[in-house]
Amino acid sequence: MHAANRPRRGNTTMRLGHWQRGVAAIAAIVGLVASLAACGGSANSQSDKTITLGATPGPYAELFKKGVQPILEKEGYTVQYKNFNDPQAADDATERGLVDLTVTQHRAYMQAFNKAKDAHLVDAGVLPSLSTGLYSDKQHSLKNVKSGDLVLVPQDSSNLSRALVLLSDIGWISLNPKTDIAKLTPNDIVKNPHNLNIKLVDRASVPRNLPDADWGVICGQPAYNAKVDQKLLVAKEHFRPEFLNRIVIKDTSRDEAWVKAVANAYHSKEFKHFLETDPSRSYWYVPEDNA
């Protein structure tokens, strides 16, 4: 046989090798895409039985760990925690799918976050909540308010609204009834008969700055964290739905089984018994949905 007519085996082998490497490369790319898609989902996607809570320091995470986690574990769930210094960082992580849920904010705060960040967080159930209150280390009665008194209030939008509603409820100011209750600012004060000096500060700083003011509106979690003496409490808020704490998740998680499991745990007889016997019970307002 002439050399020109011999089969070109070497070239066939080379083509086969190229084809095998091409298939391997495609498989690797498919695997990478699948891996990235999994990373883009919720934290729970790593396991249907793993729930990751975005936790900030304070009573809400403690309540979840002591009262809710044991119930979930009995149902076969594993609970993990990722810690954050503030609720906004935890919300960012929820939006990005790095954690599954948070339990440290009310609906008004969540809605303000969604608007500011173009986010997609939703609430999945109401929770026991800590009350915002008016405190003073100088006065013990609302009747002692004086003209020009300095009142510290939290500056973040949702808790500022909450503070102004409290001051309105006790009769110290009047608010524009046409303004959304969750979007109030000092500009919505239409009557201030005591000429109060209302100063906006970081909500966590109100407890430590209380000695320098006449009154301070302190949210429940900062009061709990700072162990503010409850003897200094002069008035409590009347809870409105906007200011009750919520289970907060990303909208794509609405139909997940673990969401229902968490909500059911908070509403269970076991959790109710836990809360009734826990030393912190006096701090909590329990809405009827949790009764």
TrEMBL record:
<dbReference type="Pfam" id="PF03180">
    <property type="entry name" value="Lipoprotein_9"/>
</dbReference>
<keyword id="KW-0449">Lipoprotein</keyword>
<protein>
    <submittedName>
        <fullName>Metal ABC transporter substrate-binding protein</fullName>
    </submittedName>
</protein>
<dbReference type="GO" id="GO:0016020">
    <property type="term" value="C:membrane"/>
</dbReference>
<dbReference type="InterPro" id="IPR004872">
    <property type="entry name" value="Lipoprotein_NlpA"/>
</dbReference>
<keyword id="KW-0732">Signal</keyword>
<keyword id="KW-0564">Palmitate</keyword>
<keyword id="KW-0472">Membrane</keyword>
<comment type="similarity">
    <text>Belongs to the NlpA lipoprotein family.</text>
</comment>
